[in-house]
Amino acid sequence: MTRVPASLLRHRFGVEPYLGDGAYGPTYGPLVEHPALVGEAVRMVRAADGRAVTSTVQIIAAPALDCPPGSRVTLPGGRITTAITTASHTAPGLPVPASTEVMCE
C-alpha cells in the first residue's frame, strides 16, 4: 500500500489531540504540525454522537494521523477549529494511496 505523495501535501496544519474532559473542560495534547492538503468546502457530516453538523474544512493527511474527533486544529491561515470526524482510507492490494481525512467545523 502506498501513502499519499508528499508532493500533494502542500499545506501545514497543527493538531492538539483531544484527550478527554477534565475538571476544567476539555484537555488537549501538545501541538504537532503535519503536512496536508486543506480544502475549504461546506458539507454536512454526521458527528460521532449522530448529530448532523456543518463542516467547512476537509483535510487530507498521511495515514495514522493522531486527530480524534474533538481535537483542536490550527489551519494554515491561523484559524482554530475543531475536528468533527476522522476517517482512515486504505485499499489493501490496490494501487491507491492510504490517507487520513479530517472534517472540521
Query: What is the terminal-to-terminal distance?
Result: 30 Å
Q: State the helix count.
A: 0
- SS-based structural class? mainly beta
Rg, alpha carbons: 14 Å
Poorly predicted tracts of residues: none
List SSEs in N-to-C order: EEEEEEEEE
Share of β-strand residues: over 45%
Instruction: Summarize the main sheet.
Output: 6 strands, antiparallel, barrel
Percent range for helical residues?
Answer: under 10%
Written description of the protein model:
This protein has 105 residues and is an all-beta fold. It has strands at residues 2-3, 11-16, 18-22, 25-28, 32-46, 52-61, 72-74, 80-89, 97-104. The protein has a six-stranded antiparallel beta barrel with strand order 2-5-6-9-8-7. The radius of gyration is 14 Å and the shape is globular. The chain starts with a strand and ends with a strand.
Which features would summarize this protein structure in a list?
60% strand; mainly beta; 105 residues; six-stranded antiparallel β-barrel; 9 strands; globular
In short:
The chain is mainly beta and 105 residues long. Helix content is 0%, strand content 60%.
Protein topology:
Elements: E1 2-3, E2 11-16, E3 18-22, E4 25-28, E5 32-46, E6 52-61, E7 72-74, E8 80-89, E9 97-104
Parallel strand pairs: 1-9
Antiparallel strand pairs: 2-5, 2-7, 3-4, 5-6, 6-9, 7-8, 8-9
